[in-house]
Write a structure and sequence with these properties.
With 518 residues, this protein is α/β, with parallel strands linked by helices. It folds into three domains: 255 residues, FAD/NAD(P)-binding domain (3-Layer(bba) Sandwich); 95 residues, no CATH class; 140 residues, no CATH class. Helices cover 35% and strands 14% of the residues. The chain contains 15 helices and 14 strands. The strands form four sheets. It has a six-stranded mixed sheet, with helices on one face. Helix 10 crosses helix 13 and helix 11 packs across helix 12. The longest helix has 20 residues. The protein starts with a strand and ends with a helix.
């Protein structure tokens, strides 16, 4: 059995871990040969978790949730299957579970996990890392041809497309935002006001030698610029509304009954029977959980949750009445326990707690087709209040505004006048029709499809791609960002949210077992 994994970042690493674990059960009469195609210099980490990037670029995902090992792994000794938190102490970077670690540190962890896998490859399996950039995949008489530099690199029985974030401006920040490209004294306009904007702002300030000092306050900082600073950073975006920082978990843990409210909501979602409708079935559950969460916290604006959700799903979300600065400041105050929880906190808390059930019940064909546009509108708004920056990065952004380094005057008013414009709006997940990526070419060539009203490759529960008529395409699979909407919420490092890699590996190894028996 010859297998190609195209794109060997975290999702490719997870798939390999599952494949080798299942393959270990085959026995010496089998042979599995795996080629890993990854042009980036840091296989297993990829560009998003490049170990060489600056330490001020942090995850917005708590360390306790990062563990590259599937719980039921049988082929690697338990002593070597360490979570990020356990592993960190061995490299002198001890983490608390609630810490938001540097992405570079996570990249080192993933690379170390890859090395651990290599030490336990069964003798009947071989691995080869290929630094080639794959151009396309096409069927042949004996399987699937992988095309590199205009020629067939090799032919495979199984191909898994696991391409994730595409590296490009403004990453790596040292290359695109360094003094040779953006000199001191420049006025820099930045398109976008989400997580990537914060990375850009930090690269142009802290990355140039600026520093932050803690004040006698739960989240206030003071910024001191370097000797030759950027003149000003001016973000502009479609809405001008910021992603809200994650609250301290202590806020939720201090509220009695919150866990039971979330449990009840997840149970309701899991009991939904298809076809599932967004307005009839899903929104009322989110509303009840948000209202109950607010009531448990002692807040009084619970009645607004239903109106907020309906507006978000319609693409016309309500406004808080606060400026962008005011929204960030209020959210940090709630998240640090200075003021009582508000509607944004309750919606973020509710969506985060319900998310596993949302992923399990609404992916694939379970939500009715016509509701997908509304669901994406809803996702955009709920992600803004749930999956925002770390508190420290939000506090740094406020400090940069206070220091006059970041100017929010035109954040929602069109492109400002500037010496240089930086694009901080990254391509979203799924398949972009006009790109030359492997997933886009598979769709253009008619080997895979994107289902109506959705963004990503249409795949079965085990990652097998579906053809234009909806039938499974033998030997061609995909996981991660290219499958968004068919699989919900791929931008995460957690292992247990998506069992698709395990199901893919089991199917491939079963195919190998059947072939060997024949």
């Amino acid at each position: 059995m010859r297998i190609a994994i195209i794109g060997f970042g975290p999702k490719g690493l997870y798939a390999l871990e599952r494949l080798l674990d299942h393959a270990a059960m085959l026995g010496p009469d089998s042979h599995v040969a795996v080629d890993l195609f990854e042009p980036h210099a840091s296989p297993a980490a990829g560009p998003n978790y490049d170990p060489a990037q600056p330490s001020y670029l942090r995850m917005n995902f708590a360390a306790e949730h990062v563990d590259m090992w599937w719980p039921r792994n049988r082929s690697v000794p338990q002593s070597e299957r360490r979570s990020l938190v356990r592993w960190s102490s061995s490299v002198g970077e001890t983490l608390d579970g609630n810490d938001y670690p540097p992405r570079a540190l996570v990249g080192r962890y993933l690379a170390d996990g890859f090395d651990t896998l290599l030490r336990h490859v069964p003798p009947w399996a071989t691995l080869r890392l290929r630094k080639d950039s794959v151009e396309r995949v096409r069927p042949s008489r004996s399987g699937w041809d992988v095309i590199v530099a205009g020629a067939v690199a090799d032919t495979y029985d199984e191909v898994l497309v696991a391409t994730g974030h595409v590296q490009g401006s403004p990453y790596p920040v040292e290359r695109w935002l360094g003094p040779d490209r953006i000199p001191s004294g420049a006025v820099v306009a930045v398109r976008g006001f989400a997580l990537t904007f914060i990375d850009v702002a930090l690269a142009l300030t802290e990355g140039r030698g600026g520093s932050f000092t803690r004040l006698d306050h739960p989240f206030r900082l003071r910024y001191a610029p370097p000797p030759e600073p950027i003149a000003a950073i001016l973000p502009f975006s479609r809405t001008g509304r910021p992603m809200l920082p994650k609250p301290d978990p202590a806020v939720a843990s201090s509220i009695d009954g919150l866990g039971g409210i979330a449990d009840a909501g997840r149970s309701e979602l899991m009991q939904l029977e298809g076809p599932i409708e967004l307005t009839r079935d899903v929104l009322p559950i989110i509303e009840r959980v948000a209202n109950a969460s607010l009531a448990a916290s002692g807040a009084r604006d619970a009645a607004e949750a239903g109106e907020w959700l309906a507006g978000a799903a319609s693409g016309l979300p309500g406004t808080s009445g606060l400026s962008a600065y005011g929204e960030l400041e209020r959210s940090l105050a709630v998240g640090s326990g200075l003021v009582s929880p508000d509607l944004s906190w309750a919606l973020g808390q509710s969506w985060g707690s319900l998310y596993p059930a949302i992923v399990a019940r609404l992916g694939g064909d379970q939500l009715i087709e016509r509701d997908w546009p509304a669901f994406r509108h809803l996702l955009s708004e709920l992600e803004r209040v749930t999956f925002g920056p770390t508190p420290i990065n939000a506090a740094k952004l406020l400090a940069l505004v206070d220091a006059g380094q970041v100017d929010l005057t035109l954040v929602a008013g069109g492109e400002p006048q500037a010496d240089i414009v930086v694009d901080a709006v990254l391509p979203g997940p799924g398949v972009t029709a006009d790109s030359d990526s492997v997933p886009a070419r598979l769709v253009a060539d008619g080997h895979a499809r994107v289902a109506r009203c959705r963004r990503g490759l249409d795949v079965d529960a085990d990652g097998c791609c579906r053809s234009t008529d909806g039938s499974p395409v033998g030997g061609l699979s995909s996981i991660g960002r290219p499958t968004e909407d068919s699989v919900i919420g791929n931008d995460t490092l957690t292992r247990m949210l998506h069992p698709i890699a395990d199901r893919w590996a089991l199917r491939v190894v079963d195919r190998c077992r059947v072939a060997g028996a024949a």
